[in-house]
Design a protein that fits this description.
single chain, mainly alpha, rod-shaped
Length: about 60
């Protein structure tokens, strides 16, 4: 019985370490996405401004 519990504890600790790595990767990905989102937002604003000027809306 003690062996079974120790095996389960090993598996749980391994899963905990893996989840920690996944959390770190998701946080890094979120930071990258924020940067890319702001770049895309500014690019789209520029395109809209050019369209407005081209169609003489401004």
């Amino acid at each position: 019985m003690v062996e079974r519990v120790s095996r389960l504890e090993e598996k749980v600790s391994c899963m905990d370490a893996r989840l920690g790595l996944v959390e770190q990767d998701l946080r890094a990905l979120g930071k990258k996405m924020d940067v890319h989102f702001y770049w895309m937002l500014s690019a789209m604003a520029g395109i809209v401004a050019l369209l407005a000027k081209g169609f003489k809306w401004l």
